[in-house]
Amino acid sequence: MTNFTNFRFEVDxxxxxxxxxxxxxxxxxxxxxxxxxxxxxxxxxxxxDEAIKGCVITSGKETFSGGADLTMxxxxxxxxxxxxxxxxxxxxxxxxxxxxxxxxxLYRRLETCGKPFAAAIHGTCLGGAFELALACHHRVxxxxxxxxxxxxxxxxxxxxxxxxxxxxxxxxxxxDALQMLFKGEQVRALMARNMGLAHQVAPRDGLVQAAxxxxxxxxxxxxxxxxxxxKLPSNKVYSAAxxxxxxxxxxxxxxxxxxxxxxxxxxLEAVYQxxxxxxxxxxxxxxxxxxxxxxxxxxxxxxxxxxxxxQELNKGARRPKEVPPTKIRKVGVVGAGFMxxxxxxxxxxxxxxxxxxxxxxxxxxxxxxxxxxLVSDQIMKGRAKTADRDALLARITPxxxxxxxxxxxxxxxxxxxDPKVKAEVIAKVEAAIRPDCIxxxxxxxxxxSGLAKTSKNPxxxxxxxxxxxxxKMMLVEIIMxxxxxxxxxxxxxxxxxxxxxxxxxxxxxxxxxxxxxVLAYILEGHLMLIEGVPPAMIENAGKQAGxxxxxxxxxxxxxxxxxxxxxxxxxxxxxxAAVIPGQEALLTRMVDGDxxxxxxxxxxxxxxxxxxxxxxxxxxxxxxATHVDGETLDMxxxxxxxxxxxxxxxxxxxxxxxxxxxxEADVGSILGFGFAPFTGGALSYIDFMGVKRFxxxxxxxxxKHGDRFAPPKILLDMAESGDTFYSRAGSRKAA
Length: 735
Hints:
Elements: E1 2-3, E2 7-11, E3 16-21, H1 33-48, E4 54-59, H2 70-87, H3 89-100, H4 102-111, E5 117-121, E6 124-126, H5 128-135, E7 138-142, E8 148-150, H6 164-171, H7 174-183, E9 186-188, H8 189-194, E10 200-202, H9 207-216, H10 240-257, H11 262-274, H12 279-294, H13 297-314, E11 330-334, H14 338-349, E12 353-357, H15 361-380, H16 386-394, E13 396-399, E14 410-413, H17 419-432, E15 438-441, H18 448-452, E16 461-466, E17 475-480, H19 486-498, E18 502-507, H20 514-531, H21 535-545, H22 551-558, H23 560-574, H24 581-593, E19 606-607, E20 615-616, H25 620-623, H26 635-655, H27 662-673, H28 682-689, H29 691-705, H30 713-721, H31 725-734
Parallel strand pairs: 3-4, 4-5, 5-7, 6-8, 7-10, 11-12, 11-14, 12-13, 14-15, 15-16, 17-18
Antiparallel strand pairs: 1-2, 2-3, 8-9, 16-17, 19-20
Helix pairs in contact: 1-4, 2-3, 3-12, 4-5, 6-7, 7-10, 7-11, 10-11, 11-12, 13-27, 14-15, 15-16, 20-22, 20-26, 21-26, 23-24, 26-28, 26-29, 28-29, 29-30
C-alpha cells in the first residue's frame, strides 16, 4: 500500500490497483492542485509497474466528487493579473493557458498511459470529476437513487475544460451532446448508461468488484477515439448528417442565450472545431476556449455569486455565531391556502413534523391534499415511491384548533395579506405556543416591525418570505424587524437550511428586497407601453437583456390585480406623489375596465387560449395613446432601462440598510426573480460595469426618461472613490 494524503492506493493479488479518493477533513472530494499531483503520481505508478494490470478509481466518501474547487480557478485569475503587471499580457496569458489546461493534460495522460483505468462511481460525480470518469476506459455506476453524473459548469459561466466537450461529443450524437453540455443537468445511472456515458450499472456493494472484473477480463486501455477506424456518432461535421445539426444548433444557441453567455458560445465552437481534429489537437482547442472563458467577466461574476457566495450563504454566513444550533422538530403552519400548503409540503419533505391549521378541518385537509398531489406527480415521473408519499403525509397533521401548536418549535403564518387578519392570528397563536417558540410571518409586502407591534414577544418575531411556487423557488427572504433577536434569526436560518433553500437576510422595509426590484422592472415595462413602444418589443428587450420573461409576462404571472392592489395601498399610505398616474390609469383600465387579472383568469397583458401558446392581447394597442415605430427605437437602450431600473433599486436598498451584504443582493436577485444571471446579480451588474460608467448611463437615461433613473448618493460617492459594493463590504469586515 502506497501512502498518499488524498488517496488510498492498494494492489490486490490479481495485480489490480484500487485508488480510493478520500480527502481528509472534507465532507466531499474536490479537485485541488494537491489532488492533481497525487493522481498524476498514481497514473505514473500504474503505467510503470509491470505487476499492475490496471486501476480502479473510486471514492471513500458517501458521494464521488462535486468536481473542481472553483476558488482554485479564482486564484488563477489573481495570478494572471499579477503577472500581467510584472511581465506583460503575453507572458501572463501563456502562463494562464498552461495552468488552466493542467487537468486536461493529466486526464489525457491517464487515457493514453497504456494501462486500463475504470471508474467506480456512487453518489454525485460532477464537473471535473465526471471528466475524470470520461477519461477512464470503463465506467461503472451504482444503481442507487443518489448516483448522478453531469457537467454543470455552464451554470457558473464556465464549460467543461478538462476534455468534457470532446469526449461527450464522441460518445453521443452531436445534438444530444450539445444539449447535455448546454443544460448542465445531472443524469441518473440508468439514463447515463442508455445515453452511452457509462458502460455498466451495478449494486453499490459490488461496484468496485464489477470494475475489477472488467480489468481482469482484459479490458482495453485504448479509448474508442484512439482506436483505428473510429467513426463519429453523427458522422463528420462536413457531411449531409453534420450539416443538418449545425445550423439548427446555432439557432437554438441564439434563442436560448440571446448571446449573453460566452461559455455557451465556447461549447458550440469547441465541439464544432474539435470534431474536425484528432483528439490531442481537439483538446488543445477546448483548452484555448477554456482559458478565454475563464478570463471573462461573466465567468468571474457567476462563479463569485452562484458558487462562492451561494455556498457561503447556504452554510450560514449570516447566522449569529454565538447562538447554539437550534433543534427544529415540529413546525406549525397557519393558513392552508396555496402558500401555506406549499410551506407545509417543503417542511414535511425535509423530515419535519408539521401542524397545518385553517379555520375548519375541511380547509386544513384540502391544504394537506396539495402535498398528496405534489408527491403523486413525483411518483408519476419515477422520482418518488408510494412509500415516500405515505411517510411524508404522515408527518402533516391538519387541524382547526390553535392548541395543536403547543409543542411547535417554529410557527409560520401564511394568512391573507391584511394587517388586521394577521394581528388576530398572531394573538391566537401566541396564546397557544411555548414562550421559546419562534413566530414567523410569510408576508411579501407588509413591514415586519409593524406586525410585531401586536406580538407579546417581538424579539422572537421574524419574517420568512417564500416565493411562489414554494417547492420550486430556491430563495427565501428572512426579514429582521426592529426588535427581532439573534435566536429568532438563527432559528429561521436553520429552518431554511433544513428545507434545503438559500436564505438572504434583509432588514425591514416596504417590499423588502426582491419585490422592490421586481416592481421596478414591471413598472418600466408599463411605462414603455404607455410611451407607445410595441408590446412585443418590450417583451423581447426583457428576454434579450437576460431576464427569464418580459415585464408584461411577469406581471401576468404575479397578477395584474395584485399590482393594482399594491399601487393603491402605497398611494393610501404614502400619498399621491408615491405613484405614477399613467401606471395607475393603465392598471385600473386593465383590471376594473376589462377584467384582465393575469394568467389566473387566462387574460392579462397576454391571452391564454386553452391548449395553445399564450399570445399578446390584441387590445393593448388601444391602451396606447401614441404608437412608436419600432424601427426608430434603440434596442440596447430598452435593455438598459429594464436592467438599470432594477440595479438602481438594489443600490437604494444598500443605501437604506435593507441589504447589508452584497452577496445577498446578488444571490437573491438571480434566485428570486431571475436577474440576468450572466451579470452575477443586480449589484455585480454595477460592479463589473464600473460604478463610474454605470452612473453615466443612469444620467443619460435620467435626461431622457425622468428622475427614477437618478443615481442615489451612494453611487455618486462610489464613482468618486473608485469603490465597488464588494470592496466596501470587505473593508467593513476588515474594520
